[in-house]
Design brief:
This protein has 455 residues and is α/β, with parallel strands linked by helices. It folds into four domains: 105 residues, Beta-Lactamase (2-Layer Sandwich), CATH 3.30.450; 110 residues, Helicase, Ruva Protein, domain 3 (Orthogonal Bundle); 176 residues, Rossmann fold (3-Layer(aba) Sandwich), CATH 3.40.50; 44 residues, Arc Repressor Mutant, subunit A, CATH 1.10.10. 47% of the residues lie in helices and 17% in strands. It contains 20 helices and 14 strands. The strands form four sheets. It has a five-stranded antiparallel beta sheet, sandwiched between helices. Strand 4 and strand 5 form a beta hairpin. Helix 7 packs across helix 8 and helix 19 crosses helix 20. The chain is elongated. This is PAS domain S-box-containing protein. Keywords: ATP-binding, Coiled coil, DNA-binding, Nucleotide-binding, Transcription, Transcription regulation. InterPro entries: AAA+_ATPase (IPR003593), AAA_lid_NorR (IPR058031), Homeodomain-like_sf (IPR009057), HTH_Fis (IPR002197), P-loop_NTPase (IPR027417), PAS (IPR000014), PAS-like_dom_sf (IPR035965), Sigma_54_int (IPR002078). It comes from Lacicoccus qingdaonensis.
Length: 455
């Protein structure tokens, strides 16, 4: 009696589960740990054919019994939440196989630690890349990227900045056009300053004095000493005109003359001024839209658009999203003096798949919310979900589950690739040109993959 009790204690002493079947493939022993892992009571299992309880293709113990061999299997997903390492052995007596035993060791905590360590390595690597971008290239300070698209754009800017040609930066709201204008100025290494002016933020009646400056007594309420305009302040430097499409029509004629002759009069002034500045402009409008507009002179557009630098939206460079996310997470955590929390895989996947219509500016706002309101050990996914509801965006992102144990790596990669390509094509109304641009591959390559995966 004591021997039986001792065996029972020893079997359940460690964090192992044990299952024993006889040669009729019926369960004759089911340990307490097995009950905990599979959430099945002893009376629900013992005496039953094991194939009635589990799928036959998942039962290593049957292979051991039928083939009279020992088997091992690493990292088997026993349940949605539990991973085990398995070892199965046949039971012999007098040369006969009487049954088989399988032992399962719960390795969920170990896998979780390994995953957390891997995630941490990835996050540290991303942050290191961001810091490297900041410190190795002072000209492009605060422009965080990882994608080849942005690397090509950086090379384009470096070439353009070495000339004195006028540059027009185009791109959607929130892509950071002023940062790129500042980068152009930095690369140019001009003696003067970088002077920005937002054309959409200046009232029409103040625009001329803001841009040209004024002499003393030019108008009632004017500074007695007069005032320098943005043109004068940008002498031998860079004048950055943001939202240039909003420049008043009557000012466009005067500004065109400055670009042609490099001469102007201050408001109320009698002495003609000469000027030398590098012009960089920006607009969130499409060039064709400006050309067809009655509110913007085409001759001015041709003057300012000698070189066009287009900043692609965030949705077209998904490789940059995670780098930007972690960069601003680090910055804003320091700003608010909060503990640096990380995102779990679900949140990272949803952030990568969201289209970010407000681009980097919107991403910064979301990160700021996450930093301020998250209070657990990781960033609170619900805060992002609440934001999506607030802006009327769907949460119907595709998610990828762990692959079956018998699926080879190549097949799983093909499956993930096919799912992602299908999602991009569907979300862009089967527009192959747009889909290939977002995926970063050529149209012929995309057509080949559509054929390969039978999409």
């Amino acid at each position: 009696m004591i021997e039986k009790k001792l065996i029972e204690i020893l079997i359940n002493f460690y964090n192992h589960s044990f299952t024993i079947i006889d040669n009729d493939e019926k369960v004759i022993y089911w340990s307490k740990r097995a009950s905990e892992i599979f959430n099945l009571k002893n009376e629900d299992v013992v005496g039953k054919d094991i194939k009635e309880i589990f799928s036959e293709d998942q039962l290593l113990i049957l292979d051991s019994l039928r083939k009279n061999q020992s088997f091992e299997k690493k990292r088997h997903q026993a349940t949605p939440d539990i991973y085990v390492d398995i070892k199965a052995e046949p039971i012999h007596h007098d040369g006969k196989v009487l049954g088989a035993v399988v032992s399962e060791i719960d390795v969920t905590a170990q896998i979780k630690r390994e995953k957390e360590l891997e995630d941490l390595k990835n996050k540290v690597s991303i942050l290191s890349d961001n810091v490297k971008h900041l410190h190795n290239d002072n000209h492009f300070k605060n422009i965080i990227y990882k994608s080849s698209i942005m690397e090509n754009l950086k090379n384009q800017i470096e070439k353009a900045a070495k000339t004195n040609a006028n540059i027009l930066i185009t791109g959607e709201t929130g892509v950071g056009k002023e940062l790129f204008a500042q980068a152009i100025h930095n690369v140019s290494q001009l003696d003067g300053d970088f002077i920005p002016l937002n054309c959409g933020a200046i009232p029409n009646d103040l625009f001329e004095s803001e841009l040209f400056g004024y002499d003393r007594g030019a108008f009632t309420g004017a500074n007695k000493e007069g005032n320098q305009g943005k043109i004068e302040l940008s002498e031998n430097g860079t004048l950055f005109l943001d939202e240039i499409g909003e420049m008043p029509l009557e000012m466009q004629v005067k500004f065109l003359r400055i670009l042609q002759e490099r001469k102007y009069f201050k408001l109320g002034g009698k002495k003609e001024q000469t000027t030398n500045f590098r012009l960089v402009s920006a607009t969130n409008k499409v060039i064709a839209e400006l050309l067809s507009s009655d509110d913007f002179r085409s001759d001015l557009l041709y003057r300012i658009n000698v070189i066009n630098i287009h900043i692609p939206p965030l949705r077209e460079r998904p490789d940059d999203i995670e780098s930007l996310f972690y960069y601003y997470l680090f910055q804003l955590s320091e700003k608010y003096q909060t503990k640096l929390l990380y995102a779990d895989q679900q949140l990272l996947q949803e952030i990568r798949q969201y289209e970010w219509p407000g681009n980097v500016r919107e991403l910064i706002n979301v990160v700021e919310r996450l930093v301020i309101f998250s209070s657990g050990s990781t960033l609170d996914n619900n805060i992002f979900h609440q934001y999506l509801e607030e802006v009327g965006q769907s949460r119907n992102f595709s998610t990828y589950s762990l692959p079956p144990d018998d699926l080879q790596l190549k097949d799983y990669i093909d499956q993930v690739e096919a799912d992602y390509i299908r999602q991009v094509i569907e979300s862009n109304d089967s527009n192959i040109e747009k889909s290939s641009r977002i995926l970063g591959i050529s149209r012929p390559t995309l057509y080949a993959k559509i054929k390969k995966f039978n999409l």
